[in-house]
Amino acid sequence: MHNVYIYILCMAAVTFLIRVLPLTLIRRQIKNRILRSFLYYVPYVTLAVMTFPAILGATQSVYSALAALVVAIVLAWRGKGLFPVSVLSCVTVLIAECFV
């Protein structure tokens, strides 16, 4: 049981280092366009990677999840806000689950 505390301590140290090292090592503005572009898109890619598997597994059927995903992508592409996209995606799942 005492090994659990060692694991928690190691994970806390790794998490702390990941957050603190960039602040201490990079003190000036990043001028490289490629690196700036990469760092700009990292949060969006991370969110997509975490969200996409959850979307496909959140419903009774993969088909209703795919239908809601398509609706969400189309609405977001057309510039709709988060609330209408989420509501219409939920309605799409509700309707699709009735037929699948």
What does this structure look like?
With 100 residues, the chain is mostly helical. The chain is 83% helix and 0% strand. The protein contains four helices and no strands. It has helices at 2-25, 33-57, 62-77, 82-99. Helix 3 runs antiparallel to helix 4 (82-99). The mean pLDDT is 90.
Helix content: over 70%
Give me the number of helical elements: 4
Distance between the termini: 47 Å
Biggest beta sheet attributes: none
Order of helices and strands: HHHH
Please give the structural blueprint.
Elements: H1 2-25, H2 33-57, H3 62-77, H4 82-99
Helix pairs in contact: 3-4
For the structure shown, list the relevant keywords.
4 helices, flat, 83% helix, 100 residues, single chain, mainly alpha
Short description:
This protein is mainly alpha-helical. The protein contains 4 helices and no strands.
